[in-house]
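Why does residue order matter? Because the sequence determines the fold. Keep that principle in mind as you read this record.
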Amino acid sequence: MPAQAGEKLLRIALLSRALIVQHMDSVPQPLIRRRKRLARSLRDRRKKGVVPVIVSLGWFLFALSLSIAEAFGQAGDNQTAHDLAIGLLLAWLPVFVIATIVDRNPIGTKSIRRKLNGFVEDVRRALLDPVAREAFLNHHRRRETDLSWTKPLETDEFFQDGFFASFAGQGRQRWHYGCAHSITAGMETAYIAAHGEDWLKVDGEAEDAIIWAQVNHQGLFWFDHRMIWQMVSSIIVVGGTLFGAFILSCEFRDAPSLTAKRAYVRKLLD
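Structure:
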């Protein structure tokens, strides 16, 4: 399926309030109601996988805090100085672990993918339905040519295995930031950057501008240059902790006496 058509389909699925969809044999309903029900269901399932991870991380951070406090309480020991240095050396690991699991739900991935594919399929059928299509165009004051990109949606082979085929986040695909990043980046370029914090001030204007804006021609696999400053800041943070661990270990090693070591620690704490 063409990447641009897929992104436009997702934009309508995530942002439209005018489209009327029908899930299987149920009564036709506004897309926003269908979207709320899906979001509530996904949040409920996500809690089952996130809560154990948060509890485990909480215990880890608690134990780390106690270790650091105990090490500073015994700062006169030269071995403790090196323990503090090792603590700084590995201080960035908890942040790294949290960042890698924050968007991952190991509970029922197949069920979640099936629900998302069902939701996208309902939107696809609505866009191909003449009545729902005409009502959607009239709401946004658009012409039929504005939906000419929906021609690939008529090909059932593209959706035979579902719109979302497999999980591809967390660095599993090179230059793939996920559908959400591509869509939000396009939203910022199309409307949010020009209107700032009050981009939702005019009801309906933001929705119309974002849905019908041009999509990223590179699809979902591209390098976002705005990520460079995040990479640089990450390198600075990790490099700073490593350098601080090296300095702390060297300073304690060169301290001439136990009294000097304690004075040095007090100076650092002050």
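The mean pLDDT is 75.
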